[in-house]
Structure prediction request, 256 residues.
Amino acid sequence: MKITFLGTGTSQGVPIIGSKHPVCLSNNSKDKRLRSSILIEKNNKSFLIDCSPDFRYQMLRINHEKLDAIFITHEHHDHIGGLDEIRPINFKMKKTIPVYGLHRVLENLKKRFYYIFSKNKNSNTSKISIYELDNYMDFFLIDYLKIIPLDIWHGTLPILGFRIENFAYITDASSIPIHTMKKLIGLNILVLNILRKKTKNPYHFTLSESLEIIQKIGSKKTYFTHISPFFGFHNEIQIQLPKNVYLAHDGLNITI
Prediction:
């Protein structure tokens, strides 16, 4: 299984428009972060977790032109804003792309992208089919690949993470329920959000909170994503992290 980090930044991306923060002014490519999303390739199939507003450029940047399914963690704009950009993939693959998410999230998509779901839509709109996960919280299958949705809290908003084999992707988490923690035992690779070092945020983990989660899960390797510029420079932070904990960066590839 191949994992590609398409974006590793927060909702505004890094650099932030107009910001004079030193990280936003950095010349290091690892400090330049598009909105968070990840591509998973397995058995000649391609799966996207979240479709960020930067989706078009993210796919062009890695020269990737196919998708077999999209998994949505939640309905915030930085995680769904690129859905209108899948049209060229529809045309090239000559197929509708299935999108999986919670009922609440899919209803939100219908409102935001009403023209995609319109009965009178024209041929130049994205073609997606939607599948609710509310009643499939143990697992669901795509071409014999077992996908396990994970209950996560983003502040007071219930959202999803996903586990596929010995890999799990969790973003925008502020807490992880005990029953979800049990589903994360035995991971080779965990991807987990980190916003800032110490400043408490009601919607995202701080560094100490993320490290505590990692210790409880015992994943062999963990990669941080959804990183704010206020967390610091990539190279400076990386050398401060524990063994087998890494800052992800845009374009990073991992093979499991």
